Amino acid sequence: MRKLYVFDTTLRDGEQSLGITLNVKEKLEISHQLVRLGVDIIEAGFPASSPGDMESVKTIAKEVKGVIICGLTRAAVQDIDLCAEALHNAEYPRIHTGIGVSPVHMEKKLKLTPDQVVEQAVAAVKYAKKYVSDVEFYAEDAFRSSPTFLARVIENVISAGATVVNIPDTVGYANPWEYGELINYVINNVKNIDRAIVSVHCHNDLGMATANSLAGIKAGASQLEGTINGIGERAGNTSLEEVIMSIYTRRDGYGVESKINTREISATSRLVSRITGVTVPDHKAIVGANAFNHASGIHQDGVLKDRKTYEIIQPETIGVPQNIISLTARSGRHALQHCLMELGYTIEGAQLDDVYQRFLQLADQKKEVFDQDLYVLMGDSGGIESSIVLQSMSIATNGVEMATATVILEIAGKTITDAACGNGPVNALFNTIDRITGNTAILEDYTLKSVTRSSEALGEATVKLRNNDGRLVVGKGFSTDIIEASAKAYINALDKRNLHTELVTES
Ligand SMILES: CC(=O)SCCNC(=O)CCNC(=O)[C@H](O)C(C)(C)COP(=O)(O)OP(=O)(O)OC[C@H]1O[C@@H](n2cnc3c(N)ncnc32)[C@H](O)[C@@H]1OP(=O)(O)O
Ligand SMILES: CC(C)C(=O)C(=O)O
Ligand SMILES: [Mg+2]
């Protein structure tokens, strides 16, 4: 197996996305996660671009160890000087320098002849080598260059000391077979290519960045460049997670292996999305919210019988706890029966048919049918007899930071009164209910929303409690008084939790 080096440029090319500018703290947080993910190289920024980016690269170089820290430059001494300064404290520093090699870049943008470009490329590599031994050269817009000229540039920069040669499809113009052929051409026509690592760097303008990167790797490239969630300028860069999981899933096809810890992929994707503010589409490959969510009956039935029917990746492999069966109007009896069983109901035959018909009527009106709806379907009273009844409650607040709640509950026919404080009315209320019921489940989420309009709007409170066994219980409560809705939701969750405990114990 050939070793595949993973070069993450989320903090440099990814950050070139419109609307993302990351500060030092944010870049550092992402860097630490990239180390957990197991990337080999972190391209931390472009130090010459701004004092802020200079500071970010400096800080990452100083604080993030065990991985190569790289900075980007133009083929220009002033950029290289600043980059070297930024990387001064890196354990393994790399300068990534380069220049445009396609006719349009040379003539129109740089206003240089091909000979001048070769000269400037070589000079930049030699200059960078004075500072660090590890110098990567990028031949910008390589795919739209002539292969013979590209080979000439690459041979010259390797002779000048480049340790890695990056062959970017800067504008995402290549087709996969063409990009593979170009990498193959470079490997077979650059005489000293054995002295450098060949790197693939693709963009997604035609939606082919993943396919092109894989074609380049298949053709012999040993370094993959890309970003988490595929973020980047215009249509973005190659999604690292897509290429990594393609190679993992189709190990037979590529002959390479990386040191990526795939179980960190989901956490890395979520962190990058949260910090950059770029939402991952639900249907995105590997890291989209629906990537392991089965929503139609035939698929759900198949997955319940054997996951392999519709899952080529086990969600756990990328750090997602489990797949999801979502009930919709496209679900069948098997999925409904499964979800009801998860809630503690065992039904089959005619009873299942009956519930299924009522389920379909409901599902046709709703996009998704949730556990709460299933409880109602099963008994119209929430499927559970409430063992805890809210008799009364009163809240006293000083209007600023302290509140006291007094609550009277009836539990199994016994009336219990207690009071507790909290940092607000809802917190005081939940603390009091905990004291009365002895609850130890953790409050994981609490939301409140209005479900009708007007001043008499009905408030809907939702409470999520995490049981000690790790299971999540959702409670809902409705009232025109939002504090009462909150109390009802909390009690509803406790009721369900108790019921669930009994069912689990019985089975
Ligand atoms: C494909 C890529 O992703 S390349 C990386 C893109 N990243 C960035 O652009 C980072 C952010 N950029 C910046 O902060 C600024 O553009 C800077 C600091 C790099 C340069 O700013 P300025 O000096 O004001 O120049 P400006 O950006 O307007 O123009 C770029 C200049 O660099 C030249 N240039 C572009 N690429 C290169 C290169 N690889 N090597 C040498 N010169 C280059 C251009 O020809 C132009 O030169 P000119 O002024 O002689 O016409
Ligand atoms: C600067 C280089 C590596 C680049 O990002 C590109 O050509 O796309
Ligand atoms: Mg790029």
Automatic annotation (TrEMBL):
Q: Which GO terms describe its cellular component?
A: cytoplasm
Q: In which pathway does it act?
A: Amino-acid biosynthesis; L-leucine biosynthesis; L-leucine from 3-methyl-2-oxobutanoate: step 1/4
Top EC group? transferase
Q: Domain Pyruvate carboxyltransferase, which positions?
A: 4-266
* Residues reported to bind Mn(2+): D13, H201, H203, N237
InterPro entries the UniProt entry points to: 2-IPM_HCS-like, 2-isopropylmalate_synth_dimer, AIPM/Hcit_synth_CS, Aldolase_TIM, LeuA/HCS_post-cat, LeuA_allosteric_dom_sf, LeuA_bact_synth, PYR_CT
| Swiss-Prot/TrEMBL catalytic activity | 3-methyl-2-oxobutanoate + acetyl-CoA + H2O = (2S)-2-isopropylmalate + CoA + H(+)
Segments of this protein annotated with the region Regulatory domain: 389-507
What this protein needs as a cofactor is: Mn(2+)
Q: Name one GO biological process term.
A: L-leucine biosynthetic process
The EC designation for this entry is 2.3.3.13
Per UniProt, the keywords (alphabetical) are: Acyltransferase, Amino-acid biosynthesis, Branched-chain amino acid biosynthesis, Cytoplasm, Leucine biosynthesis, Manganese, Metal-binding, Transferase
Question: What PANTHER family does this protein's entry cite?
Answer: 2-ISOPROPYLMALATE SYNTHASE 1, CHLOROPLASTIC-RELATED, HOMOCITRATE SYNTHASE-RELATED
Q: What is this protein called?
A: 2-isopropylmalate synthase
Q: Can you name the source organism? A: Desulfosporosinus fructosivorans
* Lineage of origin: Bacteria, Bacillati, Bacillota, Clostridia, Eubacteriales
